[in-house]
Amino acid sequence: PFTSEPHDGALVYTFYLALGHLAAALGLPIPVMYHLARICAGLFLLLVAYQFITRFFDRVRARRAAFLLLGFSSGLGWLAAPLGLFTA
Fold this sequence. Notes:
Number of domains: 1
Helix content: 55-70%
Oligomer: single chain
């Protein structure tokens, strides 16, 4: 979409366009809407991941262990944020 050459139009970034329209309709600032969508998407990912885990583990304890491993697999760097460490 970033060219000066003539070409047919294309509908790109539709998810973000929809978020912008929803933010305008609700009267929310764009950054707030972005973070709300990010949180909702993260929760949806965790729900789907748990459903995926249930396909492989029968015991509830094993499911919980796998879910916790998945939930914290991105690291614990977020714990340093309140202390002001590792910020750019």
